[in-house]
Write a structure and sequence with these properties.
By secondary structure, this protein is mainly beta. It contains 3 helices and 15 strands. The protein has a 15-stranded mixed beta sheet.
Length: about 230
């Protein structure tokens, strides 16, 4: 019996239970290093280490709330039911998964409402669902591997084709791995660069984001920012 308990203990040490609440903070800066805003996250993780829900709040330099996102992944692993609110301009973006359809609704500052429904396909990802996508495939990527993704930009009420690239481990720290999303549409390339992220593979944590963010500036325009993350506990 003692041997059974020992084996059970060793099993959990080698295979830690990943479920629980994860909290962390991101600091967003522009390409010149100027502070833009702070992100605060609360993620509910299931036993597979994937997010069942993500609550994000964004604060300006005076610690004043500027926007928030609440996402639920219980219907779809990579495409959430979500609500984004920008309190500065009273903009709201709502997404809902309905069977094999994705319902999108955008309400602008003048209370004008636009909607669209998309067919959900196997290679489709939306918003923070990209985080779940990487965590789900974390140990299955091969250096130099590319994948085609349909990335939903909910504020644009549509998806766009991206190429996902696994760039491999960081030279200085092998536990850090790098990934990049390249835009295939030449039209979008006029407005946005590639998006890059870095993960701690051992701790299953997002460490760095580099690219166009979903939080607009005071002029209502998206910005290319670099965001670094610090975890609680």
């Amino acid at each position: 019996m003692k041997n059974n308990y020992l084996l059970l203990a060793l099993f959990f040490l080698a295979n830690p239970v990943l479920a629980g609440i994860q909290t962390f903070t991101g600091t967003a800066r522009d390409l010149n290093g100027n502070f833009k805003y702070t992100e605060k996250y609360q993620i509910e993780l299931n036993k597979k280490g994937l997010a069942d829900s993500i609550k994000s709040k964004y604060y300006d330099e005076n610690n004043k709330l500027i926007s928030s996102i609440e996402s639920d992944y219980t219907k779809h692993r990579f495409i959430p039911d979500s609500t984004y609110i920008d309190v500065r301009i009273n903009e709201k973006v709502v997404t809902r998964v309905q069977g094999n359809k994705l319902f999108l609704e955008v309400t602008d500052k003048d209370a004008n409402i636009k909607t669209k429904t998309l067919d959900i396909t196997p290679n489709m990802v939306m918003g923070q669902g990209f985080h779940n996508y990487i965590l789900y495939h974390l140990n299955n990527f091969k250096t130099g591997e590319t994948r085609e993704l349909k990335f939903v930009l909910e504020s644009r009420l549509d998806y766009f084709n991206f190429t996902f690239n696994y760039l491999g481990s960081d030279e200085k720290n092998p536990t850090l791995t790098n990934y990049r999303l390249d835009i295939k549409s030449w039209i979008l390339k006029l407005f946005a660069d590639a998006l890059s992220v870095q993960y701690d593979t051992k701790k299953r944590r997002l460490m760095k984001f580099d690219g166009l963010t979903n939080v607009s500036n005071k002029r209502g325009k998206a910005e290319h920012l670099v965001i670094t993350y610090k975890y609680d506990g």
